[in-house]
Amino acid sequence: GYDDLKISVEYHLSKDVDPHSLWLMFYSPQDPSSPKKANTIFSGTQGTHTAEINGADLLSDGKTTATDYLLDGLKYDVIMTAIDYAGNSGTSGTNTGWTYDITKPTITMNTPKQNGFDNQIIIVDYNLSEQVSTVTMLFIGTNTTHTVATFTLYVNNGNNHLNLGTSSINPPLPDGVATFTVKLIAWDKAGNESEPAVSSNWTYDTIIATPTITLAGSTSYTTIRNIEVSVGNDIPDAEGWIISENAGTQPSENSAWSTEPTSFPLNSGDGKKTVYIWIKDKAGNISAAGSGTIILDEKPPAITLIEPAANTSNNGSITVSYFLSEELATNTIRL
Q1: pLDDT over 90 for what percent of the chain?
Q2: What are the b/e assignments for 31-41, b being 16+ CB within 10 Å?
């Protein structure tokens, strides 16, 4: 077992004994003053009793001597002795391997980060100074504290890492954008409570808008492949963009995200082009695709004049006949 400064004692007496004869003995080869003895005027009547002693003042007299306190971190074997009113002495069985621990565990939190962002999958990374019995995680909002189910958190000393699903948080975090103070607190097996590890101004964000894209200044045609683009409706915490003519499937968080584009090379070949844009925010949310269309036309139009024909003449009325390779803009043909 483990205990901290306040040591709970439970014992059973088969008969009445002299209460002054009841001693709790602590033995450890690592304690130079072993055995240490506790006597707090335990109850000597027949039956089961509970008491509490102070590991820093075993005699409960307010004085501290070399033999009056236990040493932090040591394992002790514990025995209780008693003498009845006839002078018969009795000894309990030995409870071995009991640890006296008054040192608080320490816990440090690497993620969630202060001023950080996460969505439905929250990466939790923290370090413990020792193996503990319980770790609790709290998301403290403006009006509500959300608690992580303790069985989902690791208690091993050293580094601990997990991807926390929001289903483990009670009550659930509100869907949308909300800011919290995140705390991690650990309790060791003796009941010592750590100082909390704190990340403030952490944002839970599950919403992302669909971006818009403007191609070549909103013109319908372009005669060059490398066009200017302008992305709109990308939120302030956007951190990645993907632009492509391939609709394909929605990119993943590990796709090749880049900085916000200002130009884009269209694929070769005249015709209607559709350009798609996705954005990713700091929480890892990925938008639906925004899109824009433009017609690439790099070939000059071909015109064949049929009439007036070569080496002919006309009177006041001139017949004009010609063939065009493509539709032209209004008022752009001259004879």
Answers
A1: 74
A2: beebbbebbbe
Produce one character per residue of 121-145: b if its CB has 16 or more CB atoms within 10 Å, e if not: ebebebebbbebeebbbbbbeeeee
Per DSSP, 57 falls in state B
Gap between the Cα atoms of 283 and 173, Å rounded? 14
Higher pLDDT residue, 83 or 149? Answer: 83
Q: How far is CA 46 from CA 63, 92, 95, 134, in A?
A: 30, 14, 21, 37
Task: Please give the angle made by the CA atoms of 233, 235 and 239, to the nearest 5 degrees.
Answer: 120
Instruction: Pull the structure tokens for residue 129.
Output: 């100074």
| Bridge partner list, 164 | 122
Sign for the pseudo-dihedral over CA of 268, 272, 275, 276 = negative
**Cβ neighbour number for residue 330 with a 10 Å cutoff:** 5
Segment (H or E) for 310: none
Q: What count of Cα atoms within 13 Å lies in the side-chain half-sphere of residue 125?
A: 6
What is the SS3 assignment for 285?
A: coil
Q: Which amino acid is at 195?
A: E
Cis (ω within 30 of 0) for the bond into 301?
A: no
CA 69, 71, 72: angle at the middle one, nearest 5?
A: 125
Comparing 92-101, 229-238, 269-278, which segment has the lowest mean pLDDT? 229-238
**Structure-block tokens of residue 94:** 């030995």
Q: How far, in Å, CA of 138 to CA of 185, rounded?
A: 8
The string of pLDDT tens digits covering residues 89-146 is 999 999 999 999 999 999 999 999 999 999 988 999 999 999 999 999 999 998 899 9
| Tokens standing for residue 246 | 């391939």
Per the CB < 8 A criterion, the answer to whether 277 and 259 are in contact is no
